[in-house]
Every structure is written in C-alpha cells, then in structure tokens.
Amino acid sequence: MLIEKYKIDEFNQNRLDEHKRKFEFAASNVPDVERVLQKLIDFQIAIPSWALGTGGTRFARFAGGGEPRSLEEKIEDIGLLHTLNNSSGAISLHIPWDIPTNASNIKALAAQNGLRFDAMNSNTFQDQPDQKLSYKFGSMQHVDKAVRQQAIDHNIEVIKYGVELGSDSLTVWLSDGSNFPGQLNMRKAFQNTLESLKEVYAALPADWKMFIEYKAFEPNFYSTTVGDWGQSFLYATKLGDKAFTLVDLGHHLPNANIEQIVALLLMEEKLGGFHFNDSKYGDDDLTVGSINPYQLFLIFKELVEGMDARGMNHATDLGWMIDASHNVKDPLEDLLQSVEAIMIAYAQALLVDESALQEAQMTNDAVLAQEILQQAYRTDVRSLVAEARLRSGAVLEPLQLYRSLKVRKNLIKERGLKTVTTGL
Ligand code: LRH
Ligand code: MN
Questions:
Q1: Which of the four pLDDT bands, split at 50, 70 and 90, describes residue 423?
Q2: Cβ-based neighbours of 155, under 8 Å, separated by 6 or more
Q3: Predicted TM-score (pTM) of this structure
C-alpha cells in the first residue's frame, strides 16, 4: 500500500505548531542540537523479513490478516514503514523463508522503496522438505561430517543470494546444542562448529562480514554450542578479522549485564551488530523498549561512548537490526514502536554529558554520575526524533497516520484475512 506525499504533508501541517513548540523547548536544552538531529536522520534500522506476519508460540498462533504473501509484498510493507519514519531503510532476509527467485527484480523493487539489503540469515535450525540429512541433532556441530557439510553448503548458498542483492554480511545463528547431560561431547561440538564456520568464512567475499549470534538456550535446554558472548567471541577471534559477535538482546540469561558485554566486545573490536527486541523472561522477542527501556538506553550509552572512542561512524559501522515476533500486536505497528524506541534510546545517549560523567567517575562520585546519566534518560527527546523525521520528509507521528489511514484494513481487503507469511 503506497502512502501519497500529500497525505504526509497534510498530516504534518495539522500538527506543526504543537510540534514546533515542543521541539523548540527541547532544542533549547541541547547544546549541539543540529549534530544530534543529523545523527538521528542518518541512523537506519534493518527490518527482519521474518517479522511481517503474526508470530506464535508452540501453543497457538492467532493470525491478524493482510499478511504479505510474497517477498515482494514484504518489501512493500517495509517500504511503507520507511515512508512513515524514514529510519527503516534496510531489510534483513532469512533463507530459505525469503529466497529471491529473481534477484535483480527484487533488488530493483527494494531500491524503489528506498531499501538496501542488510545481513543475510541462514537457517540450519529447521529441516526443509527436500533436505537429505536432518538437523535434529545439530548442524555444524553434528557428529556426522555429511550433515556438517550440508550446513556449510547452505551458508555458502546464502552468501551467493546476498551478493546478488548487494548485501555485505551473513548472520549465523546455530540452534545446535544438547538437551541432556552426556548427550553431547561439548568440546568436539565446539571444534566441529569451528571447522565448519572456517569453511563458510573462507567463502566470504573480501568486503563481507560474518556475525556469530549467540543464545543461552532454546531450542536446546541443556547446552548451546554458541551459548554466550564469550563463546561467540572465541569463534570470531579464531575465525579472523571478518568475523564478529552479534548481540540479540533476548539471548541472555536473566539479569545479564548486556551493556557491559557490549562495552567489552566494542573495545575488543569484535562487536558486529544487534538484534533488538525486549524480554522479561527468555527469548520473548517483544517490542523493543516495551519491558526495559532503561537497559536499552544504557546499551546505547556504551555504544555512543565506545564508538566515539574508536572514531566509528554510528550509522554504518555496526549492524542495526530488529528481531521480534508479534503474537498479539499488528506486526507493522509493533515494528513502528520498536524503531521509535531505538531512536529515542539513541537520542538520549547522545545527550549524555560525557566529560562531566568521566569527571564524576574519576572522583568516584556515584551520586553525581547517576544524576548525569539520568538527566539524559529523563529528557523527553520525542520531539527531537520527530523533527529528524520531519526534516527527512517523513511523518511526525507514524503510528497515528498508519491508524488514521486504516492501513491494516486496506491490506486485509487487498490480501485477505487468512494469508500466512513465511517466518516464525
Ligand atoms: C534465534 C533468532 C535468530 C533468527 C531467529 C529468527 O532465536 O534470534 O536470530 O534466525 O531468531
Ligand atoms: Mn536473533
């Protein structure tokens, strides 16, 4: 569904006075507001191709209707998000859920929607109908060399699709592990996995990156062969300069200090990117910032400080991706909220008075340090994020326009109530 420019201009015009009032007040408290606005305009978040339909659990899945029936319709839906917030300028594909049958057509359609292709995702956590060997007992860790080779070949095939589309990175998440003590020789599983990843690494084009995504548990519930940041860091270090760790916020054990993990991986130049979502218990894949927005702010505070310490470009030097699943919300509304939460956390982190904070740290003044940090966190930056959208031709309030244009109702009329999209 296309949203005409005049509808966006009309919507913004009706809200301009109120926005300008809020923005001028917020801007008056921000020393270098133009730098902050430009960073917000440049910051683009990749939308997962597998999160445009209704997700579910092993218990049930309640379809919402109007779901994309093809990769083309997925690109249109992400194009619509990008039209609304101009911060969703990339799509992350999952193979084989979204095989680009005609890559040049798909690439052209994405370009028409202002989208580029971010990291490609392989899938050796499911058996495909035509697959010879099962991944029931793992893929790259498997005791059978033939199964490992099948997984290696699949990842190399995914790289090929990515090259055709102009992507420049591969995310490898392995569900490999075990469910019971004694079931798996965990040392051999690590070595098999490393040897397998080395063959995929060798197939990477010169300018590509490989992201090793770790996860504490699920679908295996005793051991996971890439189970935490340390293991992912070990693989990435042993593989070489093109291999990095990928931090999915939902893949940690309860109460893990994710911002500390991020600070250290960034310092070690082995942080590749993120799968943003939120969770209260396990890998809940909930809307970003819906459960623990303070943790998201603390993560971005470490990112801004750590990236500035290395002179990195905030917009392009790390992989910014969402990985969520929508059991009860409209997928597009959920994604609009997630992008907004990320932009707000980034804007707040840009407001942290770093030199004052470092002075408080050097004098062990924990009270002052918290005051400086929470001054930024408690600053309402929503009008700054909205101004960045306005200046880049997008919508002051994306969710409101999405609802007032009855986008979901139109998608259901166009695609039907029972359409089921590929993905989780
Ligand atoms: C695993 C994961 C991984 C994807 C999948 C869809 O939990 O986070 O990133 O491949 O979700
Ligand atoms: Mn993920």
A1: confident
A2: 122, 124, 170, 172, 200, 203
A3: 0.98
How far, in Å, from the CA of 208 to the mean position of ligand 1?
Answer: 20
Would you say residue 205 has pLDDT above 90?
yes
Dihedral (C-alpha) 293, 296, 297, 302: value to the nearest 10 degrees? 160
Helices first, then strands: H and E counts in the chain: 15, 11
How far does residue 95's CA lie from ligand 2's centre (Å)? 14
- Count of residues making up the chain: 424
Condensed to tens digits (0 to 9), the pLDDT of residues 225-281 reads 999 999 999 999 999 999 999 999 999 999 999 999 999 999 999 999 999 999 999
Angstrom distance (rounded) from CA 383 to CA 266: 30
Enumerate residues lining ligand 1, CB below 6 A: 50, 121, 173, 213, 215, 248, 275, 283, 323, 424
Ion ligand 2 neighbours (CB, 5 A) are 248, 275, 323
| Residue 55, token pair as written in the block | 């997700």
Please give the number of the atom of ligand 1 that sits closest to the Cα of 125: 10
Q: Half-sphere exposure of 72 toward its Cβ, with a 13 Å CA cutoff? A: 7
Of the listed ligands, the closest to the CA of 215 is 1
Question: Tokens at residue 190, please?
Answer: 């690590």
Q: Which residues contact 318 (CB under 8 A, 6 or more apart)?
A: 271, 272, 273, 274, 303, 307, 312
Pairing of strands 223-224, 177-178: antiparallel
Task: Compute, in angstroms, the gap from residue 50 CA to the centroid of ligand 1.
Answer: 9
Instruction: Please check the confidence at residue 224 and state whether its pLDDT lies above 80.
Output: yes
Question: How far apart, in Å, do the first and last CA atoms of the chain sit?
Answer: 23
Q: Which of 50, 211, 275 to mutate to test the pocket of ligand 1 (most atoms within 8 A of CB)?
A: 275
Ligand nearest to the CA of 123: 1
Rounded to 5°, the CA angle 276-85-83 comes to 120
Ligand 1 atom closest to the CA of 248, numbered from 1? 8
Question: Vertex 252, ends 249 and 256: CA angle to 5°?
Answer: 100
Return the higher-pLDDT residue of 374 and 1: 374
For residue 339, give the H/E element and its range. Answer: helix 331-350
Top mutation candidate among 323, 325, 421, 424 for ligand 1, by most atoms within 8 Å of CB = 323
User: C-alpha angle 173/175/179, rounded to 5°?
Assistant: 155
Q: Is the pLDDT of residue 420 over 90?
A: no
Bridging pattern class, strands 271-276 and 46-48: unpaired
